[in-house]
Amino acid sequence: MKKLLSVLSLMIVATMVLTACGGAVTPAATQPPAVETEAPVATEAPATEASVDANALPRNETLYFNGQQWGPVVGWNPYSNSNNNALAIAQQDSARVIMFETPYLYNMLDGKQYPLLADGDYAWDEGMTEVTFKIKAAAKWSDGTPVTAEDVAYTWATAVKYDTPLAAANKDYVDTIEAKDAQTVVVKAVLGDDGKAKNPLLVNAYLSTNYVIQKAWTQTLEARSADATALLADPAEDVVYSGPYGKFFADDSKVVYVRNDEYWGQDASMWGKLPAPKYLAHTIFKDNAAGSVALAQGEVDVSQQFNSNIQVLWLNYGLPVSTYLPEAPYGIGASLPTAFYNLKSYGLDNVAVRKAIAMAVDYPTIIANAMTNQSATFDQVPRSLMNPTAGEQALYDHDAVKDLQWAGNDVAGAIALLEEAGVTDTDGDGWRELDGQKLTYIATCPNGWSDWQAAIEIVAAAGKKIGIDITTNYPEWSVYQTVVTASDADLPEGYDILMMWSDGAGPTQPWGRIRKLMSSEFVGMASNWNGNWGQYSNPAADELINAIPTMTDESELKAAYTELVKIYLTDVPSFTLMYRPQAFHAVNESVWTNFPHDGDGTNPPVPPLDMTDGWSIAGLYNLTLVNP
Amino acid sequence: MKGYRKYFFNKLAWYLVTFVFAFILNFILPRLMPGDPVAAIVARFAQGMSNATGVQAIYQQYTELFGTNKPMLEQFFIYVKNVMRGDFGFSFSQYPRTVADVLKSSIWWTAALQFPAIIVGWIIGNTLGALAAYRKGGFDKVLMPVSIFVSSLPPFGMAVILLVIFGIGLKWFPTSGGYGFDLIPSFTWSFMWSVIVHYQLPFWSLVLIAVGGQAIGMRSMAIYELNADYVKYARFMGIKDRKIIGYVFRNAMLPQITGLALAIGTMVGGALVAEIIFSYPGLGSTIFTAVMGGDYPLISATTLIITVMVLAANFIIEILYGFIDPRIKAAQAD
Fold first, then answer.
1. Residue A458 has pLDDT above 90, yes or no
2. Residue A232 located in a structural domain
3. Which residues of B touch A39 (CB under 8 A)?
4. Contacts of B157 (CB under 8 A, 6+ apart)
């Protein structure tokens, strides 16, 4: 009896365990094809089956993204910066232009600005005080009315009137924008002491960074908003746009944009056709791991997130996944994640100490571990202030700074440098002292930013190799950013070597990046989100940074940039740890193909920016289906 | 009945006092965290801004808007006044969405995932535990180690195991989302089916762990009760087994019910791990981001909901105890 009972109980447990899984398993297990047709989870569910259901997004009419939208979309208001509507609204160096459009599109590969809403190139007047450009006659809003110069002017006027982020960012350089006639826009620059534009670079950048918003809709918005705060908080579900896609659906799980088949850009004066996907959809993943799984499963076509060891997907699993470059570094590096020295920390005011630490760091390991080789090495692209793009690399004299560059892992060189500077271990404890005081530092970055943390650990290890005691500490981002951006006071204890970002590619680069790495204008700001977080100050560098925007002579420009690189590599106020792409760009070609790749023959070349940013949107017009 | 009324009002008074303190703590504690949430928001806005003073202007605009520049006491009274009207204000991290809107859009996912998981886990676990205690022998010998093994798996471990086996390996279930990545919510069969299929892995990752813990707890409680004097006495008296088990089950269940009440009370806190691993919609990760980003209004609102639910669940349980177990009422009423 007892035996029977135990057999029985075994069976009960087994059944329980099975029900635990089985309750769920049975339906799907018995009819996997049904799952595919009814809820097309499979990667290649044919459109004919999917289109039976009016509520589904047909797989071969939809392009899926990840890595751009984190968290639910909050609104559709192009005046505001707080919509968290990443695929639609991002006014940046390469502006995101699927829904709202800029007069020009920046192409990070050739550094040029190409007309979008604008008709032909813009032109500065003789006295360098204003820029003139025309609006394309074909350009239309989603409500069918034409885009006019008045819209451009009114967008700026509204920004200034309500002091929106756009105005705050540009009013030091852009004075007024006027409509000369229906098509002609005149942008008047803020003038410097010499009667010329104070910063023509930033005025040029304005034209490819900022959206044109419809005047009529803006007036509707103003009419229903009590004040500036209300205007910026308006979710703007009724917004009128000029771009190829508009809102289709948004909830906590995803956001979907649908093509406007009346889009003006199919006119011969622009693209001559509509973009290939009818829908752009972005599933909201909660972390990179979930996004990577979806990319591998073919539920994501274009991935703008860090996929660790991305090459494994095609090398080991044979998936049709690829990146812009077939080999490491897989993408085009654009920004320079950088470790800043707190120049007020004891001993870090000594240039030998700063340079020695930077020389001893094992950069190849940072690039291999933190970036899984998705960064060029410093042997491939020697350190300067430039990103690895050919355009920027050509802007300085490589030979002139050769002796100042270092590729890392140079422990012997670093030790020699310290010895020479008199930074030695005087009390025999294994750690070096400067004037009798032990050199001990804390290197830091935000907690949970795993690639940065890996890099900072290697910086700390470099210190140990040369007898400088560096430990690590990782505050939460909410704390870290508050401390680091308070440039009106000295950095507190615990922030001796800190990691932050730098600018990527854009129409003002590399000037903008250099300014943010070296200019002393940010020292003293209570909320400094620009750069120079170590609070470096060098009048010679400031002077060059101020002079470059108005320089037009190429050799003069090159000399200035070379001089800045020299100063940077000599003073070492901060040091680049790796190169990072402007945007990650990996594609799964299960459904769509003909994505931008290096050497794909496009002219002008389509940059690897997920086909949403700047000139990369041209890629959407080239896509074709694997199985039409 | 007089004793019972005294017991009732006594409890009620204590719960009100607890609520007031919890309410104050809900407000104060998040605001004592280091870091400046407004700076975090400004960080988002300031990307790509080339103008120095512009960022500063935005920062001031938002501290003004969120009232974080006011003294804490003043903020508290504004908060109390608004909460009285059911207004929890703007979420900092999802501005300009209101806290109410954020909660409304995800609370149903959380409730629909957590509530059934808690109940199913509790019922299966307790039944198994009681059976193990009563049957002993083989059933117990198999169930105990299995339960201990399952309940000691960390939640993320269970979720990842299920994900890898049933999602990636066998491909029986989707790996992420609350419904098909290629669907739009609607009242259609394909959508409903998709929701059901997507529900399974997060659901069972919660249930399996709950079952183990409940079974272990119930088993030891039941064994303890089975050896109690009243059971032996009842046996001597020749009372039927089934009747005795009824008594045992009722007595052994008391602490388990408290556990159930707590679990239900805290369920709006969300199944963070399941949500993150399966990218499942819900409040868990919303609260997590709110905490990391110092989104005071959202933290205060969710912790307030949790407080109210825990207090209410406990209160109801305590009142029910009075009926289930007269000893408690008697002891408390003295």
1. yes
2. no
3. 179-180, 183, 190-191, 193-194, 197
4. none
